[in-house]
Each structure stands twice: as structure tokens, then as C-alpha cells.
Write a structure and sequence with these properties.
The protein has 297 residues and is an alpha/beta fold. It has helices spanning 9-13, 34-42, 57-64, 85-92, 103-114, 130-133, 188-191, 205-209, 245-254, 258-270, 275-281, 284-296, and strands spanning 21-24, 48-55, 68-76, 97-100, 119-122, 138-141, 150-154, 160-168, 174-175, 194-202, 215-217, 224-227.
Amino acid sequence: MIQDKRASLAEAASLVQDGDVVALQNMATQLAPMAVVRELIRQGRLNLGIVGLLAGIPVDWMAAAGVMDRFIGGAVTMEQFGLCNRYRKGVEAGAIRVEELSETAVNARLGAGARNLPFLPTRGLIGTELIGMDPDNLRLIEDPFGGRPVVACRALVPDVAIVHAHRADRAGNVQLEPTAEWPDLGIMPKAANRVIVTVEEIVETEVLRRRPDRTVLPGFVVDAVVEVPFGAHPTSCFPFYGYDSAMHLAWVAAARDDVTTEQFLDRYIREPADQAEYLRAVGGATTMLALERMEHA
């Protein structure tokens, strides 16, 4: 019998415990699992270690809410919308510890975890100071076959990986449109001990079988799948909808001040009881329709 992996947002978020290392799919303004991020903040998670290849607004929200205490990854940025000021403030105050890696090193560490290997090599860090800053996880070693030295990147196995995609079936088989595939999606979930997936729609398995080339995760690696339309908002889920520029700008403005930061978090994250209430708070059908049109213009 096929196991039904469907869950509510609250049930899925309960798979994340205080202190866990959580890998978040995200490429700055694109395809972040924002609905679960908001739920983790509402549930009051603490001391999370966040893994990201190129993280953006979800990390800034979690930093502002005091959910995370460390970041492992390449960069945290909102690209054209500016700096992630609450993350930056947390780092400068010593509340958030940073384990900085190049993108190749993030992929190597997660890749080793996904393959049950002790490490994978890369040359992407050679010539930087990052190797010496993290000797527990990065070591310059000789090539045993006589070539140039390489950096051994210790396996990283997150407790939980959280991703957003276009569709899945009830068994947790996940499909992504090829226009939105990112390099971390194929590695993060396979390295993690538990996997949460939010999708724009849950469909019958037969729908997935019509385009098997778009299936990026098999159900047996997924622990919970949640249907959350606009679950990546305010980031994009191309080609369904674009990122919400107004929301990003509103956050950047609010994040400059402690009081307005808390007001923003209350209005858009803590007070809405579910995704429907959140969408109404950010503009409802009018805003969502505009974002859909932006992607199809």
C-alpha cells in the first residue's frame, strides 16, 4: 500500500526540533519554502542551524525572530533589494555564528552526506582563508593519485531539509518545472535525515507519470508533503508566479528598526493563523493575480 505523506503545515513543521540543522532550499529571491519558515517562527523554534547555498529573505526573517543561531553556507542576500539587515545584525552581535563556505564546498559537503561518504573533494576554496577558518570540516590534502592538492569537505547531514516545488502526489513524489530547477534541490533532501516538501498542488500519481522527466524527488525520501498555493511567496515560483517586489521592499524598510521589525513580524507572520490569512494580509487575490501575470507577461 502506498503511504500517504500529506500533512498540514503545523504537522510538517513539528518534524523540526529546537537545535536542529535545517537545510533550506533558496536562491535569494527564488523558490524558498516560505510557508514552513513562517510556521517555524509561529511555533517558536529556537537555536536552529540553517544551511543555505544562496539564502535570502527566509534567513533574514528567521534571524529577526530569533529562530536561528548559526548559518552554514555561501551567502545571504536579497540581491537587488539590498542587504539582509537582521541577519547582519545578528552576526555582528554574536547571536548568529557563521560557517562560511563557497558554493562548491556547500555542494561537496551535502554531496558527501547524500552519498554516505566521509567527505568529497573540491578545489573551489584553494587560495582563500576559509580553509583555515574551519579546520573541523575543511582540510587541504594531497591528491593520492599525484595531482594537485584538493580540499576535503566533511560530510554534512542536516537533520531536516525543507523545499518548495510545483507539484507532488500524496506519496511524496515531487515534480519541479525545468525553468525553476536549482542546484541545491537535488542534494539537500538526499543528504538530510528528514524531508519536508511544500508544493503548489497535490495531484494524482498519473499526472506525474505523464512527465516523468520532471520528477526530482522520489516519495521514499520525503517525510511530509503539504499543499500550499503560493507557498514560496514573497519569493518566486517560476513559471507560476514572480517574486513580490513590494513585499521585499517593505521588509527592507521595516528591518532597519527594531520596533518596525517586530510590527512586521506580528502583522505578516505571527498573527495570521494559516496560509489563507497570510495571503489576505499581503494583498489577497489582487496581489497574487498580479504576480501570476508578471510571470506570463
